[in-house]
Design goal:
Shape: flat
Keywords: Activator, ATP-binding, DNA-binding, Nucleotide-binding, Transcription, Transcription regulation
CATH architecture of the largest domain: 3-Layer(aba) Sandwich
Distance between the termini: 57 Å
Helix content: 40-55%
Number of domains: 3
Strand order of the largest sheet: 2-5-8-1-9
Largest sheet: 5 strands, parallel
Bound molecules: adenosine-5'-diphosphate, magnesium ion
GO molecular function, one term: sequence-specific DNA binding
Strand content: 5-15%
Number of helices: 16
CATH topology of the largest domain: Rossmann fold
InterPro entries: AAA+_ATPase (IPR003593), AAA_lid_NorR (IPR058031), Homeodomain-like_sf (IPR009057), HTH_Fis (IPR002197), P-loop_NTPase (IPR027417), Sigma_54_int (IPR002078), Sigma_54_int_dom_ATP-bd_1 (IPR025662), Sigma_54_int_dom_ATP-bd_2 (IPR025943)
Protein name: Nitrogen fixation protein VnfA
Structural class: alpha/beta
GO biological process, one term: regulation of DNA-templated transcription
Order of helices and strands: HHEHEHEEHEHEEEHHEHEHHEHHHHH
Length: 358
């Protein structure tokens, strides 16, 4: 589709021009940087960590890393670590011996072995258990493991690409993710920005999906009404490219002419009401209400003759504030400290002081 760029004049490369990656749509500055990093890292054997919300294109980048590498002729094996229970995932990844557990009626080769000579994509790596993380660390470090229920060590040559839709450092802090594995994976992190931070990609993506779905549905929707494009560009896309793709498909299916019109879009997009990004709504504070409520409570409870009203009410407000921010940040202290604008050690002390550290 984009032709072969391997023979492109050197001058283009020296000008810093990055040819797009076949199949990936969007030429915003942010995505150009993603493509650039993807190309550069693909040639190495380093582990790659893809970070970004759901639907931003992590899996597409993972497969591009493989296709652009010297391993392209080898297998590309995908495993969604979030989709299986711990024991199933362990035997899926590493294989097992007959009789290793109830139901293990025969020997089974794991996905790591299947990925020998190629790449393995570990999606939602953040949902692996700490026990499995130890085994993963060993594969990353020593390139070896044993099948479940076996003592024989197997060596593999595979490049690991992992993805997480959560901030892994937060997970490390919450003690759900091993720090040593984090650093092993984090050799080359690639952060793929959410669609709302690169709205300039929306028209290209819409045109692309219109083409794709016109073809699969034998339609010919080639025009986009201006009002429809404006609505699409204003939406916040919590489900990112996947959400956009679904809505364009739906519009093509419903279209009765060759134009994508605004009435073909779901109401939440049409009305232009912006939804907060997923997981952010709990963090919105109404400072005035919060303060008034807590001050009122502090005043009500305080002994009318007490002469320490200031410190009592201020402490009370502070405690409530910290408790709420900690909750909004899922207990992750660095995040809460940043949000509060206070030092992490200070936060730590205050959590102790207010008995909020449990
Ligand atoms: N830059 C892009 N160009 C074209 N299609 C994309 C792009 N990014 C994402 N998609 C499409 O959006 C959907 C979600 O992408 P995926 O790679 O599965 O995201 P993630 O793994 O981050 O959830 C897929 O159907 C994919 O084809
Ligand atoms: Mg995915």
């Amino acid at each position: 589709m984009y032709g072969d760029w391997s023979d492109a004049p050197r001058s283009l490369a020296t000008l810093g021009y990055e040819p797009p990656i076949p199949g990936l749509i969007g030429s915003s500055q942010a995505m150009m940087e993603v493509y650039n990093l993807t190309r550069r890292v693909a040639g190495s054997n380093a582990s790659v960590l893809l970070l970004g919300e759901t639907g931003v294109g992590k899996e597409m980048i993972a497969s591009a890393v493989h296709r652009l590498s010297q391993r392209a002729a080898g297998p590309f094996v995908k495993v969604n670590c979030g989709a299986l229970s711990e024991s199933l995932l362990e035997s899926e990844l590493f294989g097992h011996m007959r009789g290793a557990f109830t139901g293990a009626v025969s020997n089974r080769t794991g996905r790591f072995e299947a990925a020998h000579g190629g790449s393995i994509f570990l999606d939602e790596i953040n949902s692996t258990s700490l026990h499995l993380q130890v085994k993963l660390l060993r594969v990353l470090q020593e390139r070896e493991f044993e099948r479940v229920g076996d003592t024989q060590t197997i060596r593999v040559d595979t490049r690991v690409v992992a993805a997480s839709n959560r901030d892994l450092m937060d997970e490390v802090e919450a003690e759900r993710f091993r720090e040593d594995l984090y650093w092993r994976l984090n050799v080359v992190p690639i952060r793929i920005p959410p669609l709302r931070e690169r709205r300039e990609d929306i028209p290209e993506l819409v045109a692309h999906f219109l083409n794709v779905y016109s073809e699969t549905n034998e339609r010919h929707v080639v025009h986009i009404q201006r009002e429809a494009m404006e609505a699409l560009q204003d939406h916040d896309w919590p489900g990112n490219v996947r959400e956009l793709q679904n809505y364009v498909e739906r519009a093509v299916v419903l279209a009765e002419s060759d134009e994508l019109t605004v009435d073909l879009l779901p109401p939440e997009i049409r009305s232009g009401t912006k939804r907060p990004p997923l997981g952010m709504s709990a963090q919105a504070f109404d400072l005035d209400t919060l303060t008034q409520e807590v001050v009122q409570q502090g005043l009500n409870e305080a002994d009318p003759d007490a002469e320490d009203l200031h410190s009592r009410v201020v402490n009370r407000v502070e405690k409530e504030l910290i408790a709420q921010v900690m909750q909004a940040c899922s207990g992750v202290q660095t995040k809460a400290a940043t949000r509060l604008g206070i030092n992490r050690n200070t936060l730590h002390k205050k959590l102790k002081e207010y008995d909020l550290d449990s």
